[in-house]
């Protein structure tokens, strides 16, 4: 099970995988909190700016591609340990 950025519990059909959303939200969270934030308004502004930056750089495509590669590796290895094959 994964926690999303907003702390909603999400069950994954592939327990060995983190959902693409997990990587997106954790990356966004890392960017947002990389510098001190002094107000809720500044937090909202930074979330919007950093989300736009992530989206404009094509990270969603990279995340999706990585997830598909991991799915294929898992299937090819019959659902067993596969990280060492990547």
Question: What is the topology?
Answer:
Layout: E1 2-3, E2 9-10, H1 20-32, H2 40-56, H3 59-76
Antiparallel strand pairs: 1-2
Helix pairs in contact: 1-2
GO molecular function: nucleic acid binding
InterPro entries: RNaseH_sf
By helix and strand content, what is the structural category?
mainly alpha
Poorly predicted runs are: 1-10
Q: Which range does the strand content fall in? A: under 5%
- Mean pLDDT, rounded to whole units? 76
**Secondary-structure element order, N to C:** EEHHH
What separation lies between the terminal Cα atoms?
Answer: 22 Å
What is the count of β-strands?
2
Q: Biggest β-sheet, characterized?
A: 2 strands, antiparallel
The count of domains is: 1
Instruction: Tally the helices.
Output: 3
Helix content: 55-70%
Instruction: Give the overall form.
Output: elongated
Radius of gyration: 16 Å
Query: Which strand order spans the largest sheet, edge to edge or round the barrel?
Result: 1-2
């Amino acid at each position: 099970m994964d926690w999303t950025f907003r702390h909603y519990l999400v069950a994954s059909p592939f327990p060995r995988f983190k959902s693409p959303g997990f990587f997106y939200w954790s990356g966004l969270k890392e960017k947002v909190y990389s510098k001190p934030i002094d107000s809720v308004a500044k937090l909202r502004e930074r979330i919007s700016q950093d989300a736009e930056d992530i989206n404009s750089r094509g990270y969603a495509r990279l995340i999706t591609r990585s997830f598909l590669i991991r799915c294929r590796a898992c299937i090819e290895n019959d659902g067993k340990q596969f990280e060492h094959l990547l």
